[in-house]
Amino acid sequence: SIGWLVVGQMSDKFEPTPEELQRLGEMLKKEEFRKLLAEYAEEISNPEQRKKNEDEIRQMEAQQGHDVTFINPEPGFVIKTSVVKGDSRKVFINVCQSKEIDAPKVTRTTQGGRPGASWALPNSTAPCREDIDKKGVKCLVYDVVFHPDALRLAGSNAGFKQMLVKTAVDAIGQRFPDHVLSHDVKFPNMTFKGTLSSSRTMIRRAKDGGPVGPPAVAKLQQAFAAMNPSVTSTPSAPAPA
Q: Theoretical Cys-Cys bridge with 146: which of 57, 137, 150, 174, CB 3.0 to 4.6 Å?
């Protein structure tokens, strides 16, 4: 599935009304709508069709003033923690890597006459998805993507890894205020929680550097419109795949 990574400020967050949720439930009972969703899933699992869909999305996003980059984050390591505000479930954070993310930057500083350094760790996060832990209990999974240099430095310097972990945990709380995570973390013996196919992501940037609006999810809009022409809201959450 494709997740949505947003670089910039999200505006016009989509909040479905009770009526829209009820209507969606009714639509899912209809064979025609389920068929449309199944066709959509089949299309994006085909590499050639997926490329065509991505080209269509790029074109539509360009019309909205957005630049789009599709990436396939590579595994790094996993952080295990929990939510301290909001959902009470266990949380796994996949710390991933991609060269599409900007590399870490260091600025030399002086404080009290002593030399130091200030690091910037660019990263992108995607909305959480559900999974299960080894006991079969439902949990939440986030992907936080850094440049490979950041993970390389974390692998050779314990202090840098601690900074990277704090950045990943804080990034989720900042992007998703309903899920503020604990800094009491563990590192399970795994490089990725879930399946890599679920981490395919899209980075959207506003061409003018301004706020980034909701994504143009053409296929779902078409399916939605086919069954219910009166619904015109645009989802700002991941498209089912």
A: 150
pLDDT at 44: 55
Element (DSSP H or E) covering residue 143: strand 138-146
Distance CA 112, CA 100 (A): 37
Q: Give the position of tokens 């599709």.
A: 70
Length of the chain: 241
Residue-wise pLDDT for 65-108, tens only, equals 888 887 788 999 999 999 887 667 899 999 999 998 999 999 98
Show the 3-state SS of 90-113. Answer: EEEEEEEECCCCCCCEEEEEEECC
Buried b (16+ CB within 10 A) or exposed e, 88-100: eebbbbbbbbbeb
DSSP labels, 193-236: SS-GGGG-EEEEEETTSS-B-----HHHHHHHHHH-TT------
Token couple for 70: 């599709």
Q: What are phi and psi of 177, to 5 degrees?
A: -55, -25
H or E element, residue 9: none
Q: Which residue type does 98 have? A: S
What pLDDT does 96 receive? 94
Q: Which residue has the tokens 């539509």?
A: 60
Q: Region 205-234: what's the mean pLDDT?
A: 52
Predicted pLDDT of residue 216: 59
pTM of the model: 0.65
